[in-house]
Fold each of these.
Amino acid sequence: MGHEKTEASASNRAEPPNRTPVVHSLNLNRSGFNADSSAKRSTRVGPILAGLEAPAAVEPAAFPIGAGAEAFRRRFFPDATEADWNDWRWQLRNRLKTLADMERVFALTADERDAIERRSGALPVGVTPYYASLMGLDDPQEELRRTHLPVGDEFVKTPGEADDPLGEDHDSAVPGLVHRYPDRVLFLATGTCSTYCRYCTRSRMVGEPGGEYSFSRNQWDQAIAYIAAHPEIRDVLISGGDPLTLSDDRLDELLGRLRAIEHVEFIRIGTKIPVVLPQRITPGLTNVLRKHHPLWMSVHFTHPKELTPEVDEATSRLADAGVPLGSQTVLLKGINDDLAVIKPLMQGLLKRRVKPYYLYQCDPITGSSHFRTPIAKGLEIIEGLRGHTTGYAVPQFVIDAPGGGGKIPLLPDYIVGRDGDDLILRNFEGRTYRYTDPGGDLGASKPVAAE
Ligand code: SF4
C-alpha cells in the first residue's frame, strides 16, 4: 500500500496541497553553506502579486529552545546568543569532541575518560551542544549519554562481531554505492555526522573518510553514472554518514542529479539530524527538499527524551514541506529495550507525523556486545504494542542479516495450531480464535485437539 502512494509522476512533484507558499531569499556564502539558515533571516509572506511590494509584516521563523537546552546554554556557553545556539553551523563548530570538551560538561567516569583517550580512527567522539543538553551530565548510566560517550566495552570484540557485519563493502557496485536489493540502492553520500553513535553500523568508516570512502565529486559521479546505467533502480536511499550535514547547495545538486534520471521514481534520505541537530531544518533546507518530491525521510530516534520542542519544530517543518517521515530505532540494552520506553516513543512520533517504521536488532559490529539485546526482547516489545495501541504506532522488528542477507522481519507467533480445517490463532489478549481455512496446512505441525 505504501508503494502505491510513492509512485508519483513528475507532474505531482509540486508543492503539497493547501500550503501557503513560503518565500525565502537564499543567501549563499562562499563556503557553499546557506547563510539563510538562521531563523532571523527567513520570512513567511503571503502570495506576492506582480507590481506589489511584499507585506511589511514579517513573521520570523523562530526556532524554540527547550528549558533544558536553555539552562545548558547559559551554563556552558554563556557567550553564545540565542541566534548562535539556533544556528546549525554554530552547533557543528562547537561540538564536544575532545577529552577537554567532555570534561568541561560531563562528570566523566575513569572508564569513559580512558575510552575517549584510547580511541582513534573512524567513529570519533562528537556530540552537538544541543544533544548534550539532553544527556545526564552527572549520571554515566543515563540513556542518551550511553549512546554517545564511549566506554571500555567498545574495545571488546565478541564472537559473531565484525567491522562490516552487513557485508556492505562486498555489495558495493562502485565505491559508496551498495546495490543489494533488485530495484534500489544505498548511496553513501558523506562520511560526516553531526554526532557519532557508539553502536553505528558504519562505525568502520564514519568520521574518517578515506580509501574506499572518499565521498569526492568523482565518487559521486561514478555512483550516479551507475544508477543512470541501471534502469531497474527505481529507489535511491541517500545515507552516509548523515546527508543533512551537506550544505543546501550540495544536497540540492545531488537530489537534482538523481531526480534527472528518468527511472529513479523515488528518493529517500536516512538521517539523525532532526533529532540531534534540529536547528539544521531551516527554511532554506525545506525549500531544497520540496523541489525534489517524491522525497521521503527515515529519521533515527532512540528515546522519548528526544521529543523536545526543538524536534517538534523540525518534524513540523519537514512534514509541512510534504516530506513523509518514518522512524528507525535501534534496540539498545538498558537504553530503550523496554515497552515502557518504546511505547511512548512510538506514540510520540505519531503525534509528530512520524510513522514508526523499523525497530532494529542492533547489528553485531565490533565492540557492540554491551548494546545488544536478546532477540526475544524485540518480539516481546512488538507483542506489547500490537493490539495495545494504534496499529500505525507499531514498527516492524527486523534483523539485518549478517553477511548481506538483507532485512528479515520477525513477528511474535500468533499461530497456536491447527484442528482439521480450523487454524487456531491467538489474539493480543491471549484469547484463542478459530479461522476456517479449508485445505490449508498452516499450523499443521502443531495439532490442537477439538474442544
Ligand atoms: S548518525 Fe547514523 S551514520 Fe552517524 S554515527 Fe549515528 S548511526 Fe552512524
Amino acid sequence: MLERVVSARRTASHSDEDDDSVLGTDESKTKRQNLYLLASNYLSRFSHFCCQCTAPTACLVLCLVLVFVSVASLFVHSRNFVCISPFDPKTRVGFFGLDGLESDFGSLGVPWCRSKYGKTVEWTSKDLIKGLEEFVPIYETRPIKNNMYGMGFDHSFGLWFIARWLKPDLMIESGAFKGHSTWVLRQAMPDTPIVSLSPRHPEKYLKKGPAYVDGNCTYFAGKDFVDFGSVNWNAVMRKHGITDLSRVLIFFDDHQNELKRVKQALHAGFQHLVFEDNYDTGTGDHYSLRQICDQSYIRGGGHSCFVDSDEARIRLKRKIFWEKAVDIDGLCGPNEAWWGVRGWMRDNFNHSNKPISYEEHFQNSRFVESILDVYWELPPAAGPSLTHQTRYDPARAVSPIVEDGRYGLFQRLGLGRLETSVFNGYTQMVYLQISQPGS
Ligand SMILES: C[S@@+](CC[C@H](N)C(=O)[O-])C[C@H]1O[C@@H](n2cnc3c(N)ncnc32)[C@H](O)[C@@H]1O
C-alpha cells in the first residue's frame, strides 16, 4: 500500500478539468459573482478608508459613490431577504452565490495537517468520480436505511473507496453501532477478514430493526469487548496470519480523542488509519486531527476571539445558514481559549474532557506532524446546492467531488436518487498514513 502514496497536493485533487471524460460532458457548471458580497466587502473596506481620509472633498465624493453602488446592489438583491428559511438551499445560493457557498474562508483559510515530507494520496478526482458512479447503486442496497448516529453517504463512500483502493489484508473497525460501517467495509473487500470492536454487539440491534452482522468478522463486542488501546494486537495479527502491518487498515468511529488513538495505533505499528469524525475546531465530542492541526503557524489556523474581527463577522454570517457553523462565542471559551472546543480536549463522546493549555495544544500538533506521512480529508460527495444539505458549512471543507452547479454530473452519478438526509453527516473524514518520528 505504501507505494501508492506518491504525489504532493494540498487540495483534494478535484481540479482536473477533464472530469467529464469519465461520464460525458457536463454543461451545467456555472459560476457567478455575488454582487451583494462584493458590495459589502467594498463598503467595509472603504468605510475604514473614509474614516482615515486626509483629502476631505475628493474622499467625500468617492465615498458617496461607493455608498450608492453598495446600496444599489443591496436593493437589487433585496428579494433574497424575504421570508424564506435560511436553511433553504436556494436562499443560501442567492445570498452567497455558488462561489460564496464555499469561499468565505478563502482569505482566512482552513487548517490542514502538515505531513513529514509533503506526500499525499495518489488517487485523483477522476478516481473519486468513477468510485461514486460505482458506489451509489451499492449504497442503495444497504441493509440499514436509517443510520442516524452512524455514517451517512459521504463517509460511507469515503470508507468504501479507501478500503477498495488500499486492498488491505485485514480491516479493523472501532465503533460498529448497528454494523453499517462493517457492511461498507465488506462491500469494499468481499473476502477480507474484519475485526470489530464495540461495547454493544451489533446483533443486539437486530431485535429492534435492521442491523448487520458479518460472517467473516471477529467481534470484540458485548461481554468480549476490549478497547482498541488494550487489545493484544500481536496475538490478533498472529491469529490472522498478518506479518506486514502496512497491509492493515484501521477505521475509527468510536468518538475517542484522536491523539490518543493515533498514539495507540503507532505503538502497535499500524500505518493506515481512517477517522470518521474529524471535527472542526469548536465542534464535536472528541479532540480531532483537524483540531490538533489548527495552529497559528498553519494558513487558516489559529483564531482571534476579538469580536470585531473579520473572522467574527464571517462566522456570524455563516452561522445563519449552516446549522453546525460556529460563531466567535461558540468558538472561544474563558481567557480567549479557542483550541479544541473552547480550550478543552474532549474525549469519549464528550464524557471525559480536560482543559488544555495553548502550549500543550501546540506540542500536540508538533507531535502529529512528526509522525504524519499522509493527511487526506475526504471531500464531500457534492456541493450543497446539489445535495441540499444544511448542516455543515462547505467553507470549512475541501471542494466537493461534484462541485456546485454540476447538476448533470450529479444526476448521472445517481446522487440525485438519494434522500437529502444522507448528505447531512459530513465531518471531514480523514485518511492518515503514519510512521515513527524520524523515519
Ligand atoms: C457513531 S457510532 C458508530 C457508527 C458506525 N460506525 C456506523 O457507521 O454505523 C459509535 C460507536 O462507538 C461505540 N463505542 C463507544 N465507546 C467505544 C470504544 N471505546 N471503543 C469502540 N467503540 C466504542 C458506541 O457504542 C457506538 O456503537
Amino acid sequence: MEHPNKVAPSNVPTAWQRVLDTYALKYQRATGKAFEKPFVALMNGLPFSTVERDTVAEGFARKTVTALLHTCQQCGRSGRRRRHTRRYTVMCAACFSARALRADIAALLDDDAPTEAGFRPEVAWHEHELPPRIRGVIPSQIWRQTDIPGVGPVRYLGKADVQALAVWLTKLACLVDEETATAGSEAKVGAG
Ligand SMILES: [Zn+2]
C-alpha cells in the first residue's frame, strides 16, 4: 500500500504527506488495519477530517488535522495558518515571507496585474503603493524623488524603473527559492 491515507485532491505538499503517512502508520499499529479511504481532505488549502461513525478513526483523523495545521507544508518545520491572496496555507514565517515576496514580484512585473491596490502601472508607483516586501528590497539609489509643495519629499518609481529592475527582481525570487528549499536556514526577507 503506497499512501493509505492520501488526501483528495492528490497534489498534497510533500511535507504534509509525511505527516499523513506517520499517522496512517500509527493507526495501523494501533488497530491492526489500514485506512480504507482518505480520512483527511483539503478545502480552501486547509485540512479537515472526513471520518464519521468510527470513534477510533475519528480520533486519529482529528490528531492528523491538528498536526497538519502546525506543520509548514513547504519545509516541514513548525508553522501556522496564514492567509495570502484569499487562500489559506500553513507555513513557517520564512517560507511564507519568501512565497509572498515571489508573488509580489510576479504581480509587479506583470503589466496586466489586477489593479486592486489602486496601482496605475502606466504612470508610476508611489512608494506606499508598492507592496511592503517589494519596497524593502529596492536599492535606495533606484528611487526617484520629488518635492511636492506642502507635502514634502515623495519617493516613487516609474514604469521604466520597474522594468529595469525586472531582471534583478526575478533573480531575487530565484535566490529566495533556493534559500527556502534549504530547510533549517532562516530566510530573512521583506524587512522594512
Ligand atoms: Zn517552512
